[in-house]
Amino acid sequence: MMAYTVETGCIKQISVFLENKAGTLNEMLGVISGAGVNLLALCIADTTDFGIVRLIVAGHDVDKTLAALRAAGLIARETSIICLRVSHEPGAFARVLDLLADAGISIEYAYSFCRSTLEDALLIVRPSNLDLSLEVLGSNDVPLVTQRMVDEF
Fold first, then answer.
1. Do domains 6-11+81-152 and 12-79 have the same CATH topology?
2. Which class in CATH covers the domain with range 12-79?
3. Between residues 9 and 48, the one the model is more confident about
4. What is the pTM of this model?
5. 20 to 30 Å CA-CA from 93: which of 36, 51, 81, 136?
């Protein structure tokens, strides 16, 4: 049985709130690039007026990225999320989500993490209960990607 905590089983994600108009995403990416930060994963969710851009960067770049975004006048925050390692086979992700659903945990959002030196699929999830999710995943030996592993990609 694996034992996970927020410190050992989660990775850091940055969420940025952008006005939904032409050029704002490119401006935000310019801020990150100007800070010398490389993006490892990105997801965008939009509404009519605003979008939320979710980013994964190396752990040592999180504070630098947040500082650069905030200095540019953008609203940005750090969140702990889970990055699952799931085998490349039909139903593998669904089986892991069944474990969480059986424990009463819902998924607020999910997206894939494509850049990897691993053969498994990497999927980002934001569960409704982070601590319980880590307990369920650990007790079922579901492998996770740690922040240290992300920093090595």
1. yes
2. alpha beta
3. 9
4. 0.83
5. 51
Instruction: Please report the pLDDT score of residue 117 as a whole number.
Output: 63
144: which DSSP letter?
Answer: B
Sheet holding 75-86, edge to edge: 39-46, 50-57, 11-19, 75-86, 121-127, 107-112
Instruction: Domain ranges for the chain, please list them.
Output: 6-11+81-152, 12-79
Contact present, 129 and 100 (Cβ < 8 Å): no
Joined together, the tokens standing for residue 57 give: 């960067």
Which token pair is 45? 């969710």
Q: How confident is the model at residue 57 (pLDDT cuts 50, 70, 90)?
A: very high
CATH architecture of the domain 6-11+81-152 equals 2-Layer Sandwich (3.30)
